[in-house]
Amino acid sequence: MAHYHLIGICGTAMASLAGMLVARGHRVTGSDANVYPPMSDELARLGVPVALGYDAANLAKKPDVVVVGNAIRRGNPEVEHVLERRWRYASLPEVLKQEFLWGKRVLVVTGTHGKTTTTALAAHVLTVGGLAPTFLIGGVAENFGSSFRVTDSDYVVLEGDEYDTAYFDKGPKFMHYLPEIGVVNNVEYDHADIYPNLDAVELAFRRFVNLIPRTGACVAGFDSPHARAATARSFAPVESFALDAPDAAWRAAAVTYAETGMQLAVTRRDKPFGTFELPIFGDFNARNALAVVAAATFWGVAPERIAEGLATFRAVKRRMQLRGEVAGIAVIDDFAHHPTAVKETLAALTRRFPGRPLTAAFEPRSWSSRKRVFQEVYPDAFDAARQVIVAPVFGSEEVADDDRFSPERLVADLAARGKRAAVVAGADAIVDYLLPRLAPNEVVAIFSNGSFGGLHDKLLAALRARDGRADERRRQD
After folding, report:
1. What pLDDT, on a 0 to 100 scale, did the predictor assign at position 8?
2. What residues pair up with 263 in beta bridges, in sequence order?
3. Residues 6+ apart with CB under 8 A from 372
4. For residues 447 and 451, what is the distance between their CA atoms, to the nearest angstrom?
5. How many structural domains comprise the chain?
6. Which pLDDT tens digit goes with each residue over 149-197?
7. pLDDT reported for residue 140
8. Which of 15, 84, 377, 433 is a good FRET partner for 105, with 20 to 30 A between their CA atoms?
C-alpha cells in the first residue's frame, strides 16, 4: 500500500482518482484551496483527509507519491516543498496509467464536444453488456451515481481530455492513456489559452490516434471535417460514424423524436444493424450513441445488450440536466460554453420541450469563452432562444483588454437579430431580471462550466416563493 497526496484534490478528476486509489487499497490525503460539495462530501465519504489551503505542513508525513493537479502552478508551497526535497511527484494521467491501464483493454473517448456524455454512455452500455469496466468520467454518471469505478475487469473506459496535463507536462492528458479503442467524436478550435490555432488542436488529436494499435479501432466522427482529417492516417482500422456523411461505416439512417427521447435506425456499411431508443435528445447525442455502438460492437457486445444499455441510460449531471420545474417553468443546467455546444444544446432543448419558449443565461467562464476568439460566432449559437442573459466575463482581469470577450457586443448583436438580450451581473440580479420576463411554460437554460453563483437554485427558490404567494392570493379570493 502506497501513500498518495493529491494537490488540488477537489477537482472532479482528482477526487475521482482519489476514490480509485482508495478502492485499490492505497492511503490517500489531499489539499485544496477551495473545498466544497459535491466533491468534498464524496471525499469525506471515502475517508480521505483534505487540508483546506496549501501548506508545506500538509506534507509533514512524506508521501510515496505527490500528485500535482493541472490547475497547480509553481509557487504553490507544497509543490516547492516537494521540488526542494526531490520527492517523487506525478500528474494525474501518469498515475492513472501506472496504476490502472498497463495490460488492460482501454477505450478512450476524445473530442472537442461530447466526451463526458459519450464516456458515461459507453461505461453503462459495456456494463449492461457484461464487461464490467473500470471507468473515469469527467462528470457524475447518473446510472452509477459516481464519476469513477474500479473493478477486476480487463476493460477500462476513460474520458480523454486534450487539455494540458500539469505545469511540468504541457501535452494533452490523453497522450498518457493506452487506447485499444480511440474515439474521436469531433475536432474544433477550443482551449485558446494553450492552443494557438485549429491546426495545433488537430495535431494533438493526430498524435492521440497514433497511439492506437493496429489490432485496435479508431472510431471517428466523419461529420466533423477535422476529426476526419485527424484520423486519416490511423494505423488501426477506422470505424467511422455520422448522421450526414454518406461514406461513414456507421450511420443513423433515420432519427425520430418522441416525448421521451429519440430512436435511431442504425446501419453498418449500408446494411441494417438495429433500431435503438435513447431517453436523451439532440443530433449530437445521436452521434455520441453511434460512437458507442461502434465501440461496443468491436468488443463483442451483442446488439440486444447495446440496445438495452442505450435505452436505460440516465445521462450525466450538468448535461441538459433538469434541475427543477416550478409552476410550469423548467430550469436546465448545462456545462456548455463553446458556441457549437451551446447551439447544439439549445437545438436539443427545442426537441425535448417542443413549442415552449426558451431563455438562455450564459456565463463566459472557460478560457475560450473569456477570450474574443468566438465573439463573431456566439450570436448564431443562441438562435433557438427568444431571450438571452449574458453575465460579465468571469475573472475578466486575467484576460488582456484587447483579447477579452465582450458581453455588451454579444447583446448588441443579439438585439440586432430581434432578440431580447441584456448583460446582468450577479445571480441575484439575474433572478430579479428574469422573474417578470418569463413566459408561461418557459424553459430556462443556464450555461456555465462553473457554479454561476448558484443561479439554478436561486431561480428555483424565487419561482417557488412566487408560486406560493400566488396560491395564497387564490385562496384569499
Report:
1. 96
2. 256, 277
3. 403, 404, 405, 406
4. 10
5. 3
6. 999 999 999 999 999 999 999 999 999 999 999 999 999 998 888 999 9
7. 84
8. 15
| Residues 332, 385: Cα–Cα separation, whole Å | 13
Domain final position from 60, 91, 122? 91
Considering only CA atoms, give the Rg of the chain: 23
Cell of 406: 465582450
Report whether 327 contacts 463 (CB < 8 A): yes
Check if the beta carbon of residue 134 is closer than 8 Å to that of residue 100.
Answer: yes
Please give the sequence-ordered ranges of beta strands (E in DSSP) within 394-442, or none if there are none: 420-423
Nearest to 445 by CA among 372, 365, 368, 347: 347
Task: Look at residue 469 in the predicted model and tell me its pLDDT.
Answer: 65
Report phi then psi at 199, rounded to 5: -60, -40
Residue 470: predicted pLDDT: 57
* Pairing between β-strand 105-110 and β-strand 50-52 as defined by DSSP bridges: unpaired
Range of the domain at 275: 103-311
The grid cell for 411 is: 447583446
SS3 323: strand
* pLDDT < 50 positions in the chain: none
Alpha helices in 269-404 (DSSP H): 283-298, 303-311, 339-352, 367-370, 378-381
Q: Tell which of 91, 115, 145 closes a domain.
A: 91
Q: Which of 416, 412, 410 has the alpha carbon at shortest distance from 381?
A: 410
CATH number at residue 120: 3.40.1190.10
| Residue 34: predicted pLDDT | 82
What are 424-451's pLDDT values in tens digits?
A: 999 999 999 999 999 899 999 999 988 8
How far, in Å, CA of 378 to CA of 362, rounded? 11
d(C-alpha 337, C-alpha 435), whole Å = 24
Quick check: is 277 in a domain?
Answer: yes
